[in-house]
Amino acid sequence: MKKTLGELADLVGGEVVGDAQVAITGISGIEEASAGDLTFVANARYANLAQDTRASAIIASPDIKLSGKTPAIRSANPSLAFARIASIFHDTAPLYFQGIHPSAVIAPEAVIGRNVTVGPLTVIEGGARIGDDTVIFGQCYIARDTELGQGCVLYPQVTVRERVTIGNRVVIHNGTVIGSDGFGYVQVDGIHEKIPQIGIVDIHDDVEIGANVTIDRARFKSTVIGQGTKIDNLVQIAHNVHIGKNCIICSQVGISGSCILEDNVILAGQVGLAGHLTIGANSIVASGSGVPSSIPPNSTYWGFPAKPQQEARRVNASVQRLPHYVKVLNELKHKVAALEARLKE
Amino acid sequence: MKKTLGELADLVGGEVVGDAQVAITGISGIEEASAGDLTFVANARYANLAQDTRASAIIASPDIKLSGKTPAIRSANPSLAFARIASIFHDTAPLYFQGIHPSAVIAPEAVIGRNVTVGPLTVIEGGARIGDDTVIFGQCYIARDTELGQGCVLYPQVTVRERVTIGNRVVIHNGTVIGSDGFGYVQVDGIHEKIPQIGIVDIHDDVEIGANVTIDRARFKSTVIGQGTKIDNLVQIAHNVHIGKNCIICSQVGISGSCILEDNVILAGQVGLAGHLTIGANSIVASGSGVPSSIPPNSTYWGFPAKPQQEARRVNASVQRLPHYVKVLNELKHKVAALEARLKE
Amino acid sequence: MKKTLGELADLVGGEVVGDAQVAITGISGIEEASAGDLTFVANARYANLAQDTRASAIIASPDIKLSGKTPAIRSANPSLAFARIASIFHDTAPLYFQGIHPSAVIAPEAVIGRNVTVGPLTVIEGGARIGDDTVIFGQCYIARDTELGQGCVLYPQVTVRERVTIGNRVVIHNGTVIGSDGFGYVQVDGIHEKIPQIGIVDIHDDVEIGANVTIDRARFKSTVIGQGTKIDNLVQIAHNVHIGKNCIICSQVGISGSCILEDNVILAGQVGLAGHLTIGANSIVASGSGVPSSIPPNSTYWGFPAKPQQEARRVNASVQRLPHYVKVLNELKHKVAALEARLKE
Question: Which DSSP helix (H) or strand (E) runs through A338?
Fold first, then answer.
């Protein structure tokens, strides 16, 4: 594919600086770009790289100084402009096969929408309903009485357990399990007797879920993933968790049972939440934190146990100097003893 | 299905308060219940919810005050009574298919018991022996010379590696791997040369294992999971680990090689154990802890590094006030200097 | 199989002490060994076990005192010698099936080398190229335009996403995902819009990767795993990470985007790295550490946040004694107040 820089600028609502007729045939990172490539600089820290790039053109924010050697698209949001152009030059749904593969095992009672792809060796059980334009790669398992919306993409080896509901344009990466049983037992004479987990998982529109994630079904009712929330690899979401809209859950986070995340929450990598907590809207928990109690909205927390980040940093700074303070304390002890001795004289 | 409250009370050995003839057609959580539902209150904290429930009946422990508006079953263990009733109203083994699916690839040398279900596209290799009444969902991989007991349930996409042995009534959720190689290398001239992992995994009766768990085979002999132990999602159990009876291993726990867990140990979420430790019977490690050394029986540990919980809490309380103590220390320093100056006068 | 002790000694370049004609028919750990077994002692701590073993022979390092009852092979590296002998007595590639299984779904455009095994129900898409002598167990998914080298072993249910490249002699355990999308979004009016992840994963020769690992493809270019690096179960490697040669990445480690690990780095279990860090060659990060900034070569770091281990230990020792220091501080406060009062008199 070949586009002129001017055509691409129109597409993203940017303004061309320099030759609008330069031909773009691909996209690349700023350091590895070569002739024909379009690249981008979103951060003034990398402005100097823009001087040396071998790209044929650059997307840059208005505040970045350019040498003028390389034509550019000025854009208020270069990352976004670049993302949109990238999806033109690259096939972002990396399909090898389209249609219903003959090796798929699809129950006659399943309801498959129009323009659906079902890859090789995928199983779809009875009662499942698959919306139009959804792509289910090979070796997925779609259990009975599930419902998938329109325009979803399920990569190979995703399993969706019985009765789970999934909205529109949901993307799920390889190896992820939606709807395994919640971890609930009641102890009877020293034996852990299972508490039936009879709820479901309900995933709303525009959610993306990474690889090898586990999301447990509710004890009753639903574990809920709100619209537009994005979940990274190897995350654990326990039964009855409710996640709001547009949250960001980074890799290896663990969310215990019945937690509530309000909208726009960010949990950084390896964060752990105790059960039954509420994380208020727009709050951020920094990576590695262990959260023992609820967090108010619009907060940034860090630490083990987590506390407001400024406080956590102040505490941590003191902790790092603690051996010094201990030395001061011991000196004081001797000085005070000496003073006491002198006053006794 | 429809049962009277009296029939259900008999089933769980409870006593009816109010109308024993009320018809129950389903079960539900206390807040979301509606007419026809049976619900439960196990904790006095939620007693007020019982006043407002729209359920047709409640299971409650004897110490919970009820309004009398709603008929009830009094039970010493409402959670357990409820769990048992739940399994009547809901199909807890969510089978779509029964019998041997024609698309399964089963080696002629495999030995399959009576009344076994093997779902679509499951592979069972030669030398595998599957006990009576076991359900293996679709897309599982049962490698050669494995042995599964009676009444097991393996959800889709479980893999059981060669020579692994699994007892009776074991439940394994989707994506879990039993018997991958232990992580063992010996360094030779800067190269990591693999140490063969020739042992097995031995899972005893009544174990339940969550989704996307990994349990490594022993270097020699066996990695052992004791009877009645329950393991949550995304847990790592390394080679040669021995876990006792009725342990609870919460999500994302990592247990390093050759650790021993005695009976009834509880490891909360994201706990990590160093190698070759013994965790004594009935001990609890609180969530997020990093355990560098063995723990005696009947202990509760917490922290990074983990220590007895009371001590850990005392240390943590001091740490949180450390900026204050530093201020006090600095004031003292000045006061002592002033005292010294005055005494020199 | 049966070998004399002398034959085995020749094989590993060791020296026989005692009867070189003793017949060895198997190998075992020192405590569980029985007649016919060869066992080993690599550590002087376990020398006393060597006195009591029922093994027919022992491999031991030169510094370990033996009773003379049991014949032995003296070897400078008993672990290595044992590993090599183990691979003779045990089948380390646990194959049930060889050749191309008829149930595999292989695109006609895929290029399959000589002496390749493809297990049942594996999918290989068009454009994939599989090197000679590679074994792909059943139920794997090899996406389009991937390249696998020679002599690789992929256990069941591995997925290799489109365009990923894998070198020679690479071993990947069950459930691992290579090439899922990196976790990258740009926020537009409160919505997280996906940044296309158009790079690949490039795995070099002699890498081994455990079970249920996730390695994301780069935004551009490559996520790289260097030659001879070994990765344990449930590890997360984000987009654009570059890992050097012969690194050891233990279970449940999380490596954030664009990190660089130089050669011979060791990350112990559950370590987390923030994004864009460099971990210098030969450095070690102890288990459970959270690493917020880069680490120089030849260092050992520990803690949350991680710092040089000696410093971290000193800080931790002070922290553990903090309640004591607080007591001392309070005593001093009273003593100083008393001194001040006396001087005011």
Answer: helix A322-344
